[in-house]
Amino acid sequence: MSLTLKFMPIGIVYALWSGLGIVLIITGVVVIQLFSKTATH
């Protein structure tokens, strides 16, 4: 991330990292929901 900060403004880097974090959280929640539905019959 420190290499990215040399080439890009901090605002853009922060937006990308926070957006990536949100996507990962949503993906994790969806996967957990799917596994919990299939585990309980």
Describe the structure.
The chain is an all-alpha fold and 41 residues long. The protein is 88% helix and 0% strand. The longest helix is centred in the middle third of the chain and has 30 residues. The protein is rod-shaped. The mean pLDDT is 84.
Give a short synopsis of this structure.
With 41 residues, the chain is mainly alpha-helical. It is 88% helix and 0% strand.
- What share of the residues does DSSP label as strand, in percent? under 5%
Contiguous helical run count: 2
Q: How large is the radius of gyration?
A: 16 Å
Major β-sheet annotation:
none
Q: Which outline best applies? A: rod-shaped
Structural class: mainly alpha
Using DSSP, what is the number of strands?
0
Spatial gap, N to C terminus: 44 Å
SSE order? HH
Q: Extract low-pLDDT stretches.
A: none
Mean pLDDT across all amino acids = 84
Question: What percent of residues adopt helix (DSSP H or I)?
Answer: over 70%
